[in-house]
Each structure stands twice: as C-alpha cells, then as structure tokens.
DNA sequence: TAGATTGTTAATCGATTAACAATC
DNA sequence: TAGATTGTTAATCGATTAACAATC
C-alpha cells in the first residue's frame, strides 16, 4: 500500500505529467481503457518506455486491454503528489516572483498553492499581489511553522539565493523550488529542484543558429 | 570560423547557461582566467564534463592556466545565440501568455525580444499588455514575414496548440518555444523546444512524498 | 622544474530500446 | 483460438566519469 519509493528517475518524472495531461484531455471521450501503445503514439515515444514509466506509479494493467483510464489518472496524480493541495511560500517579489504568484495553474493543475509572498524590500511589504499578501522575509520562519508550510519557491537575484535557502531550511521547509541560477547548498533531507526558463531557450536558439551554418 | 554545428547534446546546452551566469557574476572580480576545476566546484559537476561542455563552444584554453574569462563569456553567449537580439511573437494571451510577455529578463539576459502578442479573442485584440501590442491571430503570417520574425512562443490551451503551430510554420517561423503540454508535429526544418513549468514541480513533489514513506 | 590544467581517448554507468514469455 | 497487450529480462546506446599524454 505504502509507496515503495524507489524514487523514479528524473526522466520518468518529466514524462508522467505529459501522460497525465493527455489522459485528462481525452477523459471526456469516455474511454474506459487505454494502452501504452496508445499513449506512446501521441508523443512518439517507445511503448516500452511508457509502460515502464507507468509501472512506477504502481498501477497494474490488464493484458490485451491496457489500463483503466480514470484509475491511471489517479495513480499518476497521487504518485506526483498532485492529488492534494500543498501550500507554498514564495520569496522574491521581482519580475519573476510576480509572474509566479500570478500563475494560477499551479493550484488548479498541480496542487501547489502559493499562499504568501516574501521580500526584503519594505516598500513591497504589506501589499497584495495577485491577491497574495506580501510579508517581510523576517516573518517567514514563524509563519512557516505556524502554517506548516513545507515548500518554498526562490525567485531572488543570484547573490541572495543561498541566503534565502538557509532561512527556508532553518524554518523547516523540506522542498525548495529554485528559480535562480545559483546552485544551492542544503542538508540532504531537503529536496531542491532547479527550474530556469532560459534552459529551454538555450536549446532552441543554439539549434536555430547551428542549422543554417550546418554542412 | 563557421560553427561546425555538430549540435551539442541537450544536457550540454542545459548546463552552459549555468556557467554563463556564474562567469558573469564573478566578472567584477577582475579574474582574467578561469579553469574548469573552478567552475565545476561551483556546481558540484565533474571537471571533465565542464571541459567537454565548454569545448563545444569552440574556445581553446591554455594548459595550466585555463580559459580567458571574458573570452569564455563571449564564446558561450554566441554559441547559444544570446549575443544578439532575436525578435519573437507570442500566441495566447491567457494567464501564462501574460506572464511570459511581462518577463523582461528574456530580452536583457537571453537576447529574446517578444515584440507582439496574438490571440483569437477579439476583446483582447488592439490592447497593450506589458507595452506589447496584441493582434488577432490572423495577422500573424503577414507580420511575421514583414518583420522577418523567426521565433514563436505558444501559450494557448492544449487543444489549440497544433493549430497555432501550423499557422506559425506556414508563416515562416523556424523556432517554436512550446509552453503547452501538446506535442507538436512540424516539418523537420522547424525546431521545437518544449518547456513546461510543471515538469520541475513533478520531480519536487514526487520526491517530497516519497521521502517520509521511504523504508 | 614541478604542478596544474587542457584536450582526448577509454571505461563505466544508466536510460532507452528490443525481445519474449505470460495473459485475457 | 488468435491477436494484442502487459510485465520483465537482455541488448544497445549515449552520456558521464576516469585515465593519461601534452603543455605552459
């Protein structure tokens, strides 16, 4: 019953959301069952790869038939931890921070509810941005403990990122979503995931440049 | 002189921006030279990996010394195509679209200038969002050709993504940055890069859930 | 010179893909 | 039943890491 937690590979975890959105998008078509072949064709993936990815969620399929569609949706969601709402704090109310505060899909699609923002700029403190109250960073530890918030998003300038991470760790935050380019040093029981917009762009613009000059 | 364009691996292209930001962040420290060991320590990477990544840019180092710091910055930037500004169009002025329109770092850091937005909702057409004019999607082909815009960002609902991609391809767009969950079918001379916020979150929330239940 | 670093070739590791028995 | 699919083990492929000669 309890998740065996062999912890799937990053590659698998990156593909599961794709399957999930696809399954949801065809949910209205009243398909009772769906096979790996079916899913793999949508994405051009190898069917075995899809099967292995799905197996990580613990679902058991039926030979010749496939997987029960709504069951599969639920299994992926709970495997990703998206079946319940996790509250989160966001630090850094700059350009990127506001962007993230305003992105509503996190709550509706991914079970992530950013309940408050933090900054060290007094002119921002006390205001509301996208209906989220902005507090001074010094209030984070107390609030994190009181509200039992375990996830923190970091959207501060490079030089401040480690300092903010230290505050979060001290406050009992267990998962940090780091949007800065700074690699963070944290205790090993704290999980860090780095997301940077520019990563995807690097691949795009490099290939775009390489193409015409190619031999 | 011309880029050999053996086209670096995705893994390499994802790490290069990290090195670039790091190099920029220490640029004021007046370091003339920097070594792979130096960079690798900042990120906890293998030094050989850093050396191979850097070698892709075509820079030649000096044994015992390392690489000329400002030269390395320039080489990475031009390898990524970030040394000049590329104009881009954005389609889909929903929650995510506005978010992307307002994110100024694309222009200042990554040489990507989103010059206009497009939507099929007439109520949005003609307005300005973040100082960017919003046009009807039907105007895209004409404007793309006139302004010679080669990059398009897709931030529309899943079901519309392929349709928008088709319009972009037809309009001569050569690089598509797809923020939807839909896999796009395009001719092979068009480059697609998929970026989804939720990917990083999936890794974070899965590991966060797996941890306490772990044996 | 000796030590440190580059550039490159070889070995290792892990993810993807192929093969195949079991199943409804 | 025959065909299609699952679940799993084996083979392949590519990226990471190790080893080492050349260099200033």
Q: How many distinct helices of chain A?
A: 9
SSE sequence of chain A, one letter per element: HEHHEHEHHEEEHEHEEH
| Spatial strand order of the main sheet of chain A | 5-6-4-3-7-8-9
The gross shape of chain A turns out to be globular
Average pLDDT metric of chain A: 92
**Quaternary assembly:** homodimer
How are the SSEs ordered, and which strands pair?
The structure is a homodimer of 215-residue chains.
Chain A: H1 10-25, E1 33-34, H2 36-43, H3 47-55, E2 67-68, H4 69-80, E3 86-91, H5 95-101, H6 105-110, E4 112-119, E5 128-129, E6 132-136, H7 140-147, E7 151-154, H8 158-170, E8 175-178, E9 191-194, H9 197-213
Parallel strand pairs in A: 3-4, 3-7, 4-6, 7-8, 8-9
Antiparallel strand pairs in A: 1-2, 5-6
Helix pairs in contact in A: 1-3, 1-4, 2-3
The structure holds a DNA duplex (24 and 24 nucleotides).
